[in-house]
Write a structure and sequence with these properties.
With 105 residues, this protein is mostly helical. It has a single domain (6-100), classed as Arc Repressor Mutant, subunit A (Orthogonal Bundle), CATH 1.10.10. The chain contains 5 helices and 2 strands, in the order H-E-H-H-E-H-H. It has helices at 6-14, 25-32, 38-46, 75-84, 97-100, and strands at residues 23-24, 59-60. The protein has a two-stranded parallel sheet.
């Protein structure tokens, strides 16, 4: 069996974030196998080959902040996608992690 790439491991975790929840880059890194991969998670999401099935818009920073450089249309598109998911996005483009944080696998 072929070993999965780092990006594939990250995508496997991101696919599991349920509708109405978000995860942080660090959380995804830990669940994918290495807590030091936070930046790598960002690179992987930027290169997302299948945004329809890998919901990268559900990944936020450790403060609940949206990505100003959201690759699939910018921060406003990410905010709209989160709102369509039932997630409240504050005026400062953050989400309340106490309310919307995914508990993980």
């Amino acid at each position: 069996m072929e070993k999965k790439s780092t990006f594939e491991l990250i995508y496997d975790v991101v696919r599991q974030i349920p509708k109405g929840k978000v995860a942080t880059y660090g959380q995804i890194a830990r669940l994918a196998g290495n807590a030091k991969w936070s930046r790598v998670v960002g690179y992987a999401l930027h290169a997302n080959p299948d945004p329809a099935n890998i919901p990268c818009f559900r990944v936020v920073n450790r403060f609940g902040g949206l990505s100003p450089a959201f690759v699939f249309g910018g921060i406003n598109v990410q905010a709209d996608l989160l709102r369509a998911d039932g997630i409240t996005v504050r005026d400062d483009n953050t989400v309340d992690l106490d309310v919307f944080m995914w508990n993980g696998l």
